[in-house]
């Protein structure tokens, strides 16, 4: 799907087709059905050549998306499982990470299957009008929740490292903040959903689910650029500043007392490891979401800047790059942490022991703060 604030795949509709579009209000007065009675669409037009090119890459694209779904869902599920089943991990930092894992799982479940089906099905959107609006709502919401949660984690780590003596936010305040993130994400998506239409090309036998800002080009561009700023530029800046301050703090940190050479070397190794980790966090966020952000800007400035033959293919590859962030997050925020790996290892060891008849109370649970 395409969207002014979105990362979604679109089926390009020839401009001439929109001249014959008629709209009818539904009984609810909120959902619109756009019917096209008769339009002659050339199967050799550049738009449809782009569809044929996309189909030729199907054997390569589908396995890549399947890998993203497998790693993203399984990795984030394990992360959620450990957090939920370890009481000593029920703290503010891990609640943020759990919310990130949940949104990434939901992102994989909604963005990937529907995007692929929409891209490669010759009949376009085949899931009906209700699913058109529902999926168009859920897809960007999960992306925005993921982005804002990453920002919250960066700020939380900044205060924990740079201002360790300051009082951390309570679990109740964390709950309010996470609720606010979901509400804000839904609010940002509302304008796009309000301009979403289920468009049926009856004679041609295909249907699309798209945004149409008819006669509101300035409003569409304002929404597109403001959403880009709020969901990419601002979070990336916040992450860069937070982790830069963390790196400076760690570099200038001096442990009091006399240290042996081995202790000094161990401290330098920890600093290097932390610096590499925070660098990876910022780089992963910036790189994963940069292609789709640049693509959307170019499309909004002038859609002719992108060759129509490669439009769908480029858009799908950019979308795949964005979705790959759901695979990176579990590794960056959990798997690279020794304590998390140790806790996960203990849990699996515990389950194996229970399976062979060893009492469960022999399985100790460690305190883990990611």
TrEMBL record:
Keywords from the UniProt entry: Cell membrane, Disulfide bond, G-protein coupled receptor, Glycoprotein, Membrane, Receptor, Transducer, Transmembrane, Transmembrane helix
The lineage's top-level taxon is Eukaryota
Q: Name one GO cellular component term.
A: neuron projection
Limits of the G-protein coupled receptors family 1 profile domain? 75-333
Q: Subunit comment for this entry? A: Interacts through its C-terminal region with the PDZ domain-containing proteins GRIP1, GRIP2 and PICK1. Interacts with PDZ domains 4 and 5 of GRIP1 and with the PDZ domain of PICK1.
Functional note = Receptor for prolactin-releasing peptide (PrRP). Implicated in lactation, regulation of food intake and pain-signal processing.
The protein here is known as: Prolactin-releasing peptide receptor
UniProt source species: Sinocyclocheilus grahami (Dianchi golden-line fish)
From the broadest rank down, the organism's phylogenetic lineage runs:
Eukaryota, Metazoa, Chordata, Craniata, Vertebrata
Identify the gene encoding this protein: prlhr2a
């Amino acid at each position: 799907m395409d969207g002014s604030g979105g990362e979604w795949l679109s089926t390009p509709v020839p401009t001439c087709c929109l001249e014959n579009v008629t709209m009818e209000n539904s009984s609810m007065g909120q959902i619109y059905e756009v019917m096209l009675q008769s339009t002659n669409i050339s199967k050799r037009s550049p738009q449809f050549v782009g569809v044929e090119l996309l189909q030729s890459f199907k054997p390569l694209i589908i396995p890549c998306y399947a890998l993203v779904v497998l790693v993203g869902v399984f990795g984030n599920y394990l992360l959620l499982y450990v957090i939920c089943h370890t009481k000593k991990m029920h703290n503010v930092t891990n609640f943020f990470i759990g919310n990130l894992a949940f949104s990434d799982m939901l992102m994989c479940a909604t963005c990937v299957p529907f995007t692929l089906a929409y891209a490669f099905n010759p009949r376009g959107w085949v899931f009906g009008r209700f699913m058109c609006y529902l999926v168009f709502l859920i897809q960007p919401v999960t992306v925005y929740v993921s982005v804002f949660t990453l920002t919250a984690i960066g700020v939380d780590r900044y205060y924990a490292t740079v201002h360790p003596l300051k009082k951390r936010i309570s679990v109740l305040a964390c709950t309010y903040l996470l609720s606010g993130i979901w509400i804000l994400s839904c609010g940002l998506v509302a304008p796009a959903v309000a301009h979403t239409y289920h468009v049926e090309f009856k004679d041609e036998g295909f249907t699309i689910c798209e945004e149409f800002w008819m006669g509101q080009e300035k409003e569409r561009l304002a929404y597109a650029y403001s959403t880009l700023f709020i969901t990419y530029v601002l979070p990336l800046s916040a992450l860069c500043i937070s982790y830069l301050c963390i790196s400076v703090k760690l570099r200038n940190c001096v442990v009091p007392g006399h240290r042996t050479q081995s202790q000094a070397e161990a401290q330098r190794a920890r600093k290097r490891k932390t610096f590499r980790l925070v660098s990876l966090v910022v780089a992963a966020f910036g790189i994963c979401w940069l292609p789709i952000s640049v693509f959307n800007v170019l499309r909004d400035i002038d859609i002719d800047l992108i060759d129509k033959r490669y439009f769908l293919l480029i858009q799908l590859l950019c979308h795949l790059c964005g979705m790959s962030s759901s695979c990176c997050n579990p590794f960056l925020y959990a798997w690279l942490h020794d304590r998390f790996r140790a806790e996960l290892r203990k849990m699996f060891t515990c389950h194996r022991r229970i399976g062979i008849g060893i009492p469960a109370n022999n399985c100790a649970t460690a305190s883990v703060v990611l």
